[in-house]
Amino acid sequence: MRKTLVIIASIGVVLALAAAAAAGDQAVSEYRIGAKDLLEITVLGVAEINKLVVRVSEEGRITLPLLGEVNVDGLTRSGLERELTRLVGEKYVRNPQVTVFIQEYLSKRVSVLGAVEKPGPFELLGRQTVLSIISQAGGLTRDAGKEIIVIRQLAGGDSTAIRIPIDDLFLKGEARLNIALEPDDVVTVPVDKTVSIYVFGQVRNPGALQVRVSSLPTLTQAIAQAGGFSERAVKSKVKVRRKDPSGKDLEIVVNVKNILKGKVKDIPLQENDTVYVPESLF
Question: Fewest Cβ atoms closer than 10 Å to its Cβ: which of 1, 48, 78, 229?
Fold first, then answer.
């Protein structure tokens, strides 16, 4: 199932990446300028504003020679070109030719962390969704867990976590889960590493079980994955060996018969636990 998930998820990522690339030019044109963005501005024939590089202030303004302070917050690139064309045309040059190039998109970013191929910050150009931003980050790795967590800042300084099941998004294609992202969102794909559980003694297939941290088996589940008890197994004296947080060796003796009868609860196993099923001498 996990292998199938990785294959299908990869296909979904490729398709999403292609869609994101096709929409790239439109997304850039829709980007709205904000604080910390770096702009390059040229007014043809005005030497003071020829490839002039300016940083947008925290208040969403830039200061230009001849024009002074200009509010640019929330304007698109083409919108700023029109505004500067109007200002220059009113004071200095008839029908001026103005070009604006956004060198750095810093006001609207999201961060992608965890089990993706290329984690890091990404510009939020136009409307971006969880699927499109993960595709920009190279897709999911093999260690991806079962969900995507979007941490979003709320008004007043609080934050909320939006949890998106990966199977429902990638396999079932539930469009409602492919939410639109907002500036400063943090998209996290928790790592769900593969670990070992060891089952030895009187089971049919002794050895190491490779399991996910999110799906650690119980004692009876591990024995079942190891093929079940052999005919000479002593089910009443199964031993679970592990280390406590201080590194000290612990041994738990379990009567599995009582678990199977429902008299006691099954034992949750931990990473690197060793299960030993002794052999009957008679």
Answer: 1
Residue 184 burial (10 A CB sphere; 0-12, 13-18, 19+): middle
What one-character DSSP code corresponds to residue 59? T
AA letter at 281 = L
The tens digit of pLDDT for each residue in 258-272 reads: 999 999 999 999 999
Pairing of strands 38-43, 120-123: unpaired
Q: Does the reported pTM lie above 0.85? A: no
**CA-closest candidate to residue 105, choices 134, 130, 82, 128:** 128
Condensed to tens digits (0 to 9), the pLDDT of residues 31-65 reads: 889 999 999 999 998 999 999 999 999 999 999 99
Q: Is there a shared CATH topology between the 108-189 domain and the 194-277 domain?
A: yes
Architecture of domain 194-277: Roll (3.10)
